[in-house]
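quick one before i forget lol
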Amino acid sequence: MHEDIVATERIPVAFQGEGSGTGVLSWGQREIWLAMVNQRDHLGIGGRKPLPPGTRVEEIADELRYLMTRYPPMRTKLRFPADDPERPTQELFASGVIDLEVFDVADGEDPDAVAAVLEHRYKFEPFDLAGAWPVRMGVTRQGGCATHMIIMMPHIVSDAGGGSVMLREVETRETGPVPGMQQLEQVRWQSSPEGRKHLARTMRYYGELLRRIPTRQVPGPFEPRTPRYWAGDLDSTALPIALKAVAERTQADSSAVLMVLFAASLSRITGIHPVVLRPVVHNRFRPQLAGVMCMVAQAGCSTLEVAGIGVDEAVVRAQQATMLAYKHAYFDPYELNELVAEVAKERDPELDISTFFNDRRMGKGRNDEAIPAASRDLLAQTRAASTFEWTDRQDNPFDRVFLHVDDSPGDIKLRICFDTAYLQPEEAERLVRNMEALAVEAALTPDAPTGVPQ
């Protein structure tokens, strides 16, 4: 139903913004580009939203013009050099024209259902990153008024932190200087003497880490399932309650608590420790990147010692390890991949650091007043209501293990994506369920053991 809908109108939207030029990809762009290539997916970000009654299509066209004018990544196209097409460059344009697609919805039809089909189409139809603007925007119209707006961009345009900046600024129509160092400015700094010194320090950190960690962070390879790559979701109302209790007691960030739960559960399953996790870092604590709307998030790397100790002590250690990961999460991923390959030749062909942790929760504090205090009865009741389901089985690759954390009011979702050649589905489900169980135990018992043998 609705799959064959076509735009009834295309409104050309002209824009003109500051800045133009060419350059290589910035470090953040390189990182997401490699992920897009590996996963054979443009990793679209965006979605659909209902519009206030009476909204005119012209208002949405004005919003599209504002976005294209203000944010350089939306005015950027990739270039694929003939001598090295696997390492694209970029070209930023100062002006251009983009179409706003309008889809008329007949009386009696559900405009949200039409918008949902468009959201899916915009997300999964491949983007022409060299020939078209990396933004798709459409609007559904019924009875002469706009009902829903749909926008989608490939992940190389921005990360979640940049998306938050965009949403905040478009709400107020901010007209001041665009904050932060833009992507071509980042490229210039990264190739400067100061940028090269920073990169050299970071590569020394990774070189030392790679030469001391267990070379294998997951068992295998095994005979993979068909399809090979799976994903599943654990939805838990117990986790927010338990996390708050542990975070308040340890005075730690709840992300550090989640990393300990992840590391301990993974180590229980694999028998491998210490555990090496790669937390996704937004990097906007760096002064030159504060408030920027572009792709600057990168995965740091930290070693978590969780064997033979309690959760509280492990959380304190994780806080320290996380600080190191954050400090060294701004680097050239091309050089890191070359370093991993070099050390793998020295130590083990299976050397790998593809265990990722991505805390995507909007509110990550420990003092959320809406979350009730932990009690044995409440945690037992909420844990009994938790659900797990397999959501994806696909041939397009995931990393070996990737845990995403999302939230909604009163709920946390643990999304585990993995390669069945290295983690079996039953182990993946047990991993996230163990995280919830350990969180509940730790909430009720100060310094509960992680359960990882020394």
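fyi The domain at 9-176 is CATH 3.30.559.10 (Chloramphenicol Acetyltransferase).
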